[in-house]
Amino acid sequence: MKAPLNWLREYVDIALSPKELAKRLTMSGTEVKGIETIGGWENIVVGQVVAIEPHPHAARLKLATIDLRGECLRSVCGASNLEMGQKVAFARIGAPLIDPQSGEPVRLERAKIRGIASEGMICSERELGISDRHEGIMVLPPDAPLGVPLNDYLGDAIFDLDITPNRPDCLSIIGIAREVAALTGKSVCLPETRYDEPGELIERKVSVEIADPDLCPRYCASLITDVKVAPSPPWMEQRLLACGMRPINNIVDVTNYVMLEYGQPLHAFDYERLAPKRIIVRRAGDESITTLDGVERMLQSDMLVIADGEGPVAIAGVMGGSGSEVTEETTSVLIESANFNSVSIRRTAARLKLRSEASLRFEKGISPELTMLALKRATQLMAELSGGKIARGIIDVYSGKKEAKPIALSTKQVERILGIKIGLEKMMKVLCSLGFDCQTVSTEELSIAIPYWRTDVRLAEDLVEEIARIIGYDELPITLPSGALPQYEADPMRAIRERASDILAGCGIQEVITYSLISLEVSRKVVLNSGLTPLKIANPITTEQEYLRTTLRPGLLEALSANEKHEEGSIRLFEVGKVYLPREGNLPEERQMLAGVLSGPRLDRSWHGEGEVLDFFDVKGVLETLFERLGVEASFEPVNDELFNPGRVARIMLWGEELGIIGELHPRMAEGFDISRPVYLFEINLEKLLPTTIAPRKYRPIPRFPATLRDIALVMDGEVAAKRVQDIIQSFPLVAKVALFDVYTGEQVPQGKKSLAFRILYQSPSRTLTDEEVNKEQERILERLHRELGAALRA
After folding, report:
1. What's this model's pTM, rounded to 2 decimal places?
2. Beta strand ranges found along 393-473 (DSSP E)
3. Residue 439: which domain range?
């Protein structure tokens, strides 16, 4: 919402500087995002044309004498709209202007035009930087003060306001003026709306019927005949431009002007194009309408339309139809000022993808009482600017009128909520400055009637907020909290999420956050034959975000695919988040998961040459680091999974229960996400991991006695897993640590066999082991390996 300072001054006396006023508005809850200054003109003053003579050497040029209040200067002018007595913006020699051809800033230089010296220039709006108009000079209102610098007359500060959704009244100049008045202790002066009604009785000319009062509680209309469609006066055009709206003509501009002024959207119909001079407010049928933007739009049965006897002429609260549009040939105008159901307008605008200034205001829930005030103001202005004749009376169909109930507010309530005592008189002063009608019930209680424009105030707590923000939150005294501070409640899941994120980030993996909503097509790419149908949301934004994810894989793979197109190096991503598993007849199970994807070279490119690519064991090493730092003893077991390459996938086990999965994504799956290189993926169920991480840890002292290292190479069948061999060796009491350091298959071992070499660390916590003890322990190890696995020492 943009609010010009000069426009605000028409309703409230403002002595504050723009910066100070912006600060007060922001501190009271109406944030000012920025201030745009219009003006800054130098050597440009308000002048009056007192004489016009023909140029002796050019038929299309004129010599205009400009009175600058006691000083008269002559200017050569070629504008077609130059007339005697006009008030104009006159630039003296040296004034900075905008070149209308190039748009670049220039300074006005002394010059002779066809042999006649020009002592200055009468400016157009483009030369002043006000708008792009350059067809003629800018004509100022007749009451423009002569000889006054143009900067003092037309200069302005425009506030760019960020209005909260609960304050539709502030989507208007008058609404902002009320805020300013309350903050500065001034009163608001609203424009008078008196006018004559010389025309026929309006009921004889048009009828209005509300077929669906649940969507339209009030509909008002007035009629103006014998109008003349023409450009709006400069003052109105400049205000519309300052607020970001494009002037069109005096009829349409009035509806936009009053909407900005009062916050009530209006619409002007070409009365002669309504058949048969009848308005019906109803739900749409199986029909379409071509809107003012020239697009034909199909309507749905829950959308509200304004129709005549033949079909829809406007989409209620959103946009008018081209069939009843006001044109240059229009001679009679029916003005609509109505109130519509906010939910209906929001849904209609969203489905049609047609947001407008009108729908923006209706969506917020404006008051039905505003319709009559805005209609009268628009009728007055339109008759004045078009020369039309106003029909007698106003049609007002008001089926949804509700009586507002007063709210009781006591000083004790204010003290309880704000923590400070505020007297009854001060409460009344603040609330009355905002337009509330306060009646004293007792020495400590008020009965407060809510003004029609404050649709956001429903409770006593709302009134307390009004008191606090007008007094100023920065004026409330600072006090320490009374009572004991609440005890810290540990959140183990949050702790493990943050801990896991820190560990993986330390491993060089970047955290991402992807959408929880996905498409069914993407979901089926990563969840094969599971029988799990993801939950579909009722109001999806797009078809690509219709379903709740049941795994973190889609978002990570899409992120990897997008990054691969711009990154040659390694891409390592992980995410910690929720997945949503459907449960019949109940809300979905929200499960905390951890997943990651790694792809690309192991090391960045350097003078060493091309490095090797990441493989399964790089990812396994990352998870081993994660589990070690979390104090978890997890293991890996072979598994078959269609999503992964056979032989390069393992399930992660913890105390006999599956914790997650790790493996190389099958090339077919990678192609489905447009990924061209090998991808390694892991996914872990944090809910299963959590109990192990929060279990108390046992202290294990650092060994005091030296260790003995022994290396052994074993020959066994090729199908025997190294993990099984390692577990058997590790189970012996004197073995502190065992690690596989070599795997060999080839000529020196029999066909179908393989050689595994292990380094074993023998150590006792109570004594130094002798060679004899180590030899006996190793013999027992070899004997068990031979008995259970058929393994033998390699010769």
Report:
1. 0.68
2. 395-398, 407-410, 437-442, 445-449
3. 407-475
